[in-house]
Amino acid sequence: MSLRQILIHPDPRLKTPAKPVASVTDELRRLADDMLETMYDAPGIGLAAPQVGVLTRILVMDCVKDPELPPRPMVLINPEVTWSSEELTTYEEGCLSIPDQYAEVERPAEVKVRWMDLNGAWQEEHFTKLWATCVQHEIDHLDGKLFIDYLKPLKRQMITRKMVKLKRELARG
Ligand code: K2U
Ligand code: ZN
């Protein structure tokens, strides 16, 4: 298991649609492990492979926030939304690739998602609440979409400018 570097916006790899997984290999299993370790270390409740520079359709999440409850690490390969509710909810979203920036994003309140697990078996689950918001945020990452793409252009440009400045400072070390 090793920590992967999380790419910071703007980065072309964060805007490139990821490719479907052809087969579940040991390398993919190692990537999933590293993504979970990187997510928990951030800390975060979700992480998509493009965020660590791998343009493959795999994401991890664990939206259990109550430390009293057992964690529920999930690995979703080639996930697809098969149903989404008419009802919408608004959540103040953040993103590990856009640090310290938060904005309200409206999404369907509930979604049904179908995916392949690490054993190659197809699963389907009905997500609600934070799980629903998170899985939609992560699937957007696989499609090269960021939560700032839902904001008004001015707000998006302001956040992008802050990230360009941050990356310049980080590069200077
Ligand atoms: O994909 C990511 O960048 C991780 C995201 C996942 C996420 C964003 C918005 C709403 C739900 C999930 C987060 O940065 S993880 C940090 C976090 C933790 C709790 C609530 C919101 C965001
Ligand atoms: Zn994100």
Defining traits:
two-stranded antiparallel ribbon, 3 helices, alpha+beta, Peptide Deformylase, 24% strand, 173 residues, binds zinc ion, 29% helix, binds ligand K2U, globular
Explain what the structure shows.
It contains three helices and seven strands, in the order αβββββββαα. With 173 residues, the protein is of the alpha+beta class. It has a single domain (12-172), classed as Peptide Deformylase (Alpha-Beta Complex). A hairpin with a 5-residue loop joins β6 (111-116) and β7 (122-127). The radius of gyration is 16 Å and the shape is globular. It binds ligand K2U and zinc ion (ZN). Residues 44-48, 91, 93-97, 133-134, 137-138, 141 line the site of ligand K2U. The site of ligand K2U has 16 residues, from β1, β4 and α2.
